[in-house]
Amino acid sequence: MMIDQEETRSKRTVRKRADEIKPFRCKNLIAVIEDPADIGNIGTVIRNVNALGVEKVYVVDPRKTLPDEWQDLRENRVMSKTSVSAVKWTFVRRFDSTDECFDYLESKNFRSIVTSPHVKGKASIYLHEGDFTTHAKLAVWFGSENTGISDRAVERAEMCVSVPMFGMVESLNLGTSSGIVLYEVAKQRREYQSQYRKRNQRSAREEPLPTVLPPREGR
Fold first, then answer.
1. Sign of CA dihedral 42, 47, 49, 50
2. What are phi and psi of 99, to 5 degrees?
3. What is the dihedral sign for C-alpha 66, 71, 76, 80?
4. How far apart are CA 30 and CA 73, in angstroms?
5. pLDDT band at 84 (very low <50, low <70, confident <90, very high)
6. d(CA 74, CA 150)
7. What is the model's pTM?
8. Residue 61 contacts by C-beta under 8 Å, 6 or more apart in sequence?
9. In principle, which of 101, 133, 143, 179 could form an S-S bond with 148, CB 3.0–4.6 Å?
10. Domains assigned to the chain
11. Three-class SS of residue 212?
């Protein structure tokens, strides 16, 4: 009986948290990881995605290191550990190739931007220069830890976004770069969707949604 009561309280706590964060989720915002070299780094990105309110994660996985089924991925011990269990609460889908992922995104009317430590591509900007509310549906691509974003992804994307570097080191690891970029993108889109309804010709809401969660009890 005591165990049942504890499970009930735990479920209520989870439901309460889910209800609290729902208005802050960035709808139609997807993070794409292209050909990651380390499954542990995927978990780190998933953790960033979940914490920052990004809706989904897509993984381009030509070596098929991940399972096709989301439920199998959620039960992967390495993934659960590196994501600090965020994989249990985050939708993840894998694709066999870059073109397959782009084809699927474009069929759903998503626009894509790619990230790179070096400015390149058809259109290139620094992160702080971007307006990431222009497109109703947006996918943000992150390249492999070893080789970066592919030329094919750059070719098919709308533009290339980079984080400016001011030290001797000219690149960031996947976990750090995804956290920085997704923070800025999600912040802009959350502020925008709190004021406007994208599906209704960007008409203003009668009452803006909140943009910041209240502090948790005990903090």
1. positive
2. -65, -40
3. positive
4. 18
5. low
6. 27
7. 0.82
8. 35, 36, 94, 95, 96
9. 143
10. 26-195 (3.40.1280.10)
11. coil
